């Protein structure tokens, strides 16, 4: 049973536009939600997180929105840049257990 | 999709003993494996990167003599916590990738280590 789902395996966005990556979860007991970014041949690196008591967290070009009633979160990247092309993993945290989604590959088009 | 199996899922050991955690790629050849450690309510911390057949590259602040990583085959990497202490208690998770899979990375289920 997948508790964290990223239903879009890939996404293509024009440079300069907004990239929106989506993630759904099933367990309402998660404390934190995190986004990781992964470049080829590198390990995933932490990008941004949000506590379950908040609905928005912003860090530069990256904003994460949390909709608890819908059990949905999204990562917005504005404006999208070529260096943003990577695989993005959504993860949910409860106590000391972390569960990852399968990832969404983002392509930023010139 | 590709599967990464991590074993054991949880382990309890006494202080001073060593514990080995295995990370296996079940249906693909993992040219690179990553080991992470997660502290409560914090993000994952990358400990080391290992490529098959070569020595692991450790992140700054990670003791390579304490956290021994072996990646002897394309399907298996092991993390051995030597002379474990209570402060080593944590959640350890591996991630595996392959040049054939481009940017795909697959995570193991994680191992909860408790040192008493």
By DSSP (H or I, 4+ residues per run), the number of helices of chain B equals 0
Q: Quaternary arrangement of the chains shown? A: heterodimer
Strand content of chain B is: over 45%
Helix-strand topology string of chain A? EEEEEEEEEEE
Shape field of chain A? globular
Indicate the structural class of chain B.
mainly beta
The number of helical runs of chain A is 0
Low-confidence residue ranges of chain A: none
Taken in chain order, the helices and strands of chain B follow as EEEEEEEEEEE
Please, what is the average pLDDT of chain B? 86
- On the 0 to 100 scale, the average pLDDT of chain A is 90
The best one-word shape of chain B is globular
- In total, the number of strands of chain B is 11
Beta fraction of chain A: over 45%
Please count the beta strands of chain A (DSSP E, at least 2 residues each): 11
Q: Please name the two chains that share the biggest interface, counting residues whose Cβ lies under 8 Å from a Cβ on the partner chain.
A: A-B, 26 and 25 residues
Topology:
The complex is a heterodimer of chains A (110) and B (116).
Chain A: E1 4-5, E2 10-14, E3 19-25, E4 32-38, E5 45-51, E6 56-59, E7 62-67, E8 72-77, E9 86-94, E10 97-100, E11 104-109
Parallel strand pairs in A: 2-11
Antiparallel strand pairs in A: 1-3, 3-8, 4-5, 4-9, 6-7, 7-8, 9-10, 9-11
Chain B: E1 4-7, E2 10-13, E3 19-25, E4 32-38, E5 44-51, E6 57-58, E7 67-73, E8 76-81, E9 90-97, E10 105-107, E11 111-115
Parallel strand pairs in B: 2-11
Antiparallel strand pairs in B: 1-3, 3-8, 4-5, 4-9, 5-6, 7-8, 9-10, 9-11
């Amino acid at each position: 049973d997948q508790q964290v789902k990223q239903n879009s395996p890939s996404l293509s966005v024009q440079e300069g536009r907004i990239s929106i990556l989506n993630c759904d979860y099933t367990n309402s007991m998660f404390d934190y939600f995190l986004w990781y970014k992964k470049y080829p041949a590198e390990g995933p690196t932490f990008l941004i997180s949000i506590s379950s008591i908040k609905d928005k967290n912003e860090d530069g070009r990256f904003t994460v929105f949390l909709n608890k009633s819908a059990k949905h979160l999204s990562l917005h990247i504005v404006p999208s840049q070529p260096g943003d092309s990577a695989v993005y993993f959504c993860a949910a945290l409860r106590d000391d257990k972390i569960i990852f989604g399968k990832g969404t590959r983002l392509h930023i088009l010139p | 999709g590709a599967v990464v199996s991590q074993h054991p899922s949880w382990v309890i050991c006494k202080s001073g003993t060593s514990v080995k955690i295995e990370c296996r790629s079940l249906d693909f050849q993992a040219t690179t494996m990553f080991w992470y450690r997660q502290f409560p309510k914090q993000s994952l911390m990358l400990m080391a990167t290992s490529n098959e057949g070569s020595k692991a590259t450790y992140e700054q602040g990670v003791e390579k003599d304490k956290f021994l990583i072996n990646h002897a085959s394309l399907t298996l990497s092991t993390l051995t916590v030597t002379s474990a202490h209570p402060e080593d208690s944590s959640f350890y998770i591996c991630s595996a990738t392959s040049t054939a899979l481009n940017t795909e990375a697959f995570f193991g289920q994680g191992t909860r280590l408790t040192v008493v």
